[in-house]
Amino acid sequence: QLPDAVVIVLFGATGDLAGRMVLPALVEVHRRGLMPDAWRLVGVAADELDDDAFRDRFQAAVAASEHGLCDDWDEVRDRTRYCGGRFGPDDDAGLPTLLEEVRAELRADTGAEPLVLHFLAVPPAAFGPITRGLGAHGLAEGARVVFEKPYGTSLASFEELDATVKEVLAEEQIFRIDHFLGKEGVQTIYVLRFANQLFSSEWNRASVAQVQIDVPEDLDVTNRIGFYEATGAALDMLVTHLFQVAGQVAMEPPADLRDPASVIAAREAALRAFRPLDPAEDVVLGQFEGYRDIEGAAPDSTQDTFVAARLWVDTERWRGVPFLLRTGKRMAAKEQRITLVLSPPFGPLGGELEEPNTIEIDFAGEGEVALGITVKTPGPELTYSSGRARLDLDDVPGGEGLSPYASLINDALIGDRSLYTTENGLRAAFTAFAPLQGPDRPTPLPYAPGSWGPEEAHRLAAPHRWMLGE
Ligand code: BG6
Description:
470 residues; single chain; binds 6-O-phosphono-beta-D-glucopyranose; alpha/beta; 20% strand; 9-stranded mixed sheet; 15 strands
């Protein structure tokens, strides 16, 4: 339920993430009428700016975003305040005073106590100090707190961070972002599965031979080389986004799709059924040729810019069905696709089909659902061809998609954590990922920029093939 009034406190408000994603998404939520009438934004960052200087930056960021400024921009500008300085357990940057002033205004306007939503768009090293600061300065009680990714970089660092955060916040107050869960195409999995007999009856090992979750990117890493040298593709994308999407595909039907607790429990159970990766058998790492020549990369760097993994989900529904996960930088294309590769039917043609049927969900942009099916080739002969039937989610009548960040901010406002990651879910993800962070981590194999990654990755998809690519 939407509160009567809300103050969004954005930490890292002058940073890159805030400018590119969070500030435009806040305006999108406002433009779509999803904010309570009484809302305010308080930007917090180290830069010493006055309100107007921050509002100018806010305006520039939103003007440069996809939808640009909203019609009532001046009003949004007036809702905004700024608080500059260091914030942590020992420094309050003047935030408690400013926040109380803003809350009092809203209280006077609405008669209600406003919800405070802290949004931590800051580097992970700042998560602990800021959370402790919220506790020390009395700003945590009753608040919700959104944490950006990555929330931990290993099982141990996740546990340590979560223990620090839990000294101040209860799990129910914590909203850990994985923006892939906010994508329209990923959210549509629920309805596709649970509202269509056609899909719900086939969504299991009896019909599905393989699940592929494929996120090739043509992006370079030159402008984020410092981050990349410290992170790599597997940590940046696999244990986070791809595992969470795999959890969405693999989960059992929740008892009640509108009850967040029931959805969370279903996804956690799926993640807990992920078998820890076997690096020797089931993982191929790659590094694009030329990576080590990038200024800032170690000349002998063994960082991965590509990962393909075969994940096993040990539930009755999925046992024996490989989940093939793949992503990398400087690959041949940028796509984001889930493909369920179906087993052939048992009828008279089943034995001779070369192309499997597929159920495909594209979750880039607005999203698309497609079916790969076999039909008779029109004409006199009984021959057949494969084709694709597509539904653009953007064309679904009555709808207008939300960007992932706007969708997740809306959920935080109404207190729905079902598309956020949880303590149990992340613990399970890092546990399944841990073998890739140990001594058995394979050496990345070289691949040509603009290719589909190392040849070796094809082995994982046998007897089928990666449905995207050559
Ligand atoms: C980020 C990763 O979380 O997600 C990037 O750090 C990646 O490496 C990006 O490119 C992909 O996000 P999107 O919004 O393009 O799907």
